[in-house]
Amino acid sequence: MKKIITASLSISLLASSFSPVLAAENDLLNDSLTNLVPLVLKELNGVQKASVANTLDSANESDFFKLVLDKDQLVDLKVSGLKNEEVWFTLSSKDGEQILNFDEPVGDTLAQKVSLAKGEYIIRLYLRYSHQVSNYKFDVQLQDKGEFFEVEPNNTFETANYLPLNTSMIGHANVNQESDNTYPTWQPDYYKFEVPVTQKYGIKYTSETIARVYLYDEARTLLNSNAENKTFNLTPGTYYVKVEHYTSEERDYTIEVDTLKFSDVTLNTSGVKEIAFLSNLGIIGGYDDGTFRPNDYVKKGQAASMVVKALGLSTKNRPTTSYKDISKHWANDAIKTLVDEGILPDGKKFDPNANLTRGEMASIIVNAYKLKGVSSTVFSDVPKSSTAYPYVSALAANNITTGYGDGTFKPKNPLTRAHFSIFLSRAMDDRYKQ
Question: What is the DSSP letter of 54?
Fold first, then answer.
């Protein structure tokens, strides 16, 4: 399967005499919706950016800006240099529908990332209550959105974001403030997904925020009003998920719908979405009793078979190897194929029924996917003199591993079937990378 490649950025640069950077003492005439100042983004080191310096000097004063995107984009917003905690920030659609409203500076900075659909947006900075002058610097930076960030607005069935199965979507809990600045309201987020075959599916929600997840069928009939982290037997068709938050703080969250094909793989299983991804592609299979046995160690012969299937390699007419212990093994053809392709070394003993180690996994995946790079991460148990070093370092450089919390990689430890599924999926598809 091909890796996901994000499209390059194209942004409409608005014609304006407005300079990308203004000195704070030159107060902009942008204190109303009729005086919107266009944000002119300019490319710097391959990144589209805009920067404005200005002053808010009286209670309830506002500065308004206009941002135009000609495609879906991840937008990084930052207001810095604040000496006044009463500065608020809102982002709205052209029609005035509020998307973001936040006022929680970290130090002297308000910062937020949001994924926005193609269109025109209004940004407002305003000073509540206080008469203390507040100078600020406002920076906007655009990034390739990728495929798996929520795109605002998506607060209706009609604007629901498409959610691929077995994929974590990163969303954002948006909080709006009432006109009296006292009672927050919450914007729901809608997603839709397609069910191809009748079987069990699970809805997984992860966040620090309190939320309720609703499940609807194609006719938008409510099926369950507490669907978070629950499983359902679904028939083919289109389904909708609504995420409704109950928090006064804006927070990110993840939402995913996972295929649960095996009786011992649940929403709490490490690698649940990767196991489903590989299973749907026919790369891995379970046992006759309907289990996957995710915590069993993966054997070297099993790993060889999975990698051959993942790469789509033909096993026909492959030359024999020097290995003396594979001729009668069921994975013989797969092992010969990987040796012929230069993914596995040739030798006298392969030991196909032995547990695959983490170091051996690193070597196979780096060779199979021709991964390059040297990571700045140093694992205490993988010195540069180690034979595993170039492979482990390349895995880390490609965001396929971060090792353990204690700074080790444990290259000699055996690998479970679940963890091998995770590493292989990350090599195959960027959505599973860390």
Answer: E
**Residues ≥6 apart with Cβ < 8 Å to 394:** 362, 366, 371, 372, 373, 374, 375
Give the model confidence (pLDDT) of 154-182 as tens digits.
989 999 999 999 999 988 876 654 444 44
Please state the three-class secondary structure of 291-304 as a single string: CCCCCCECEHHHHH
Residue 47: per-residue pLDDT:
85
For the beta carbon of residue 265, count every other beta carbon within 10 angstroms. Answer: 26
Model pLDDT, residue 1: 36
pTM for this entry = 0.77
pLDDT in tens, 219-261: 999 999 999 999 999 999 999 999 998 766 667 899 999 999 9
C-alpha–C-alpha distance, residues 311 and 281, integer Å: 11
Per DSSP, the three-state class of 382 is coil
Q: What confidence tens digit (pLDDT) does each residue in 188-221 have?
A: 999 999 999 999 999 999 988 778 999 999 999 9
The edge-to-edge listing of strands for the beta sheet with 189-195 is 161-162, 189-195, 237-245, 211-216, 222-224
* Backbone φ and ψ of 302, nearest 5°: -60, -45
8 Å CB contact between 215 and 239: yes
The angle subtended at Cα 258 by Cα 151 and Cα 243, nearest 5°, is: 40
Strand 62-69 relative to strand 37-38, pairing: parallel
Q: How many CB atoms lie within 10 A of CB 132?
A: 14
**Dist. CA 259–CA 231, nearest whole Å:** 10
Angle between helices 358-368 and 300-311 (to 10 degrees): 20
Alpha carbon distance 266, 203 (integer Å): 11
Encode pLDDT of 366-409 as tens digits: 999 999 999 999 999 999 999 999 999 999 999 999 999 999 99
What tokens appear for 248 in the block?
């006064």
Q: What's the full length of the chain, in residues?
A: 434
CB 300, CB 347: distance < 8 Å: no
Residue whose tokens read 């000097």: 57
From the centroid of its chain, how far is CA 68?
Answer: 24
Output the six-digit token pair for 160: 């629901």
The token pair at 51 is 């920067």
- Fill in the DSSP letter of residue 249: S
Q: 270 near 228, Cβ under 8 Å? A: no
Determine the Cα–Cα distance for residues 263 and 249; give it in Å rounded to an integer: 38
CB 206 within 8 A of CB 254: yes
Q: DSSP states of 70-108 as a string? A: SS-EEEEEEEE----TTEEEEEEETT--EEEEE---BTT
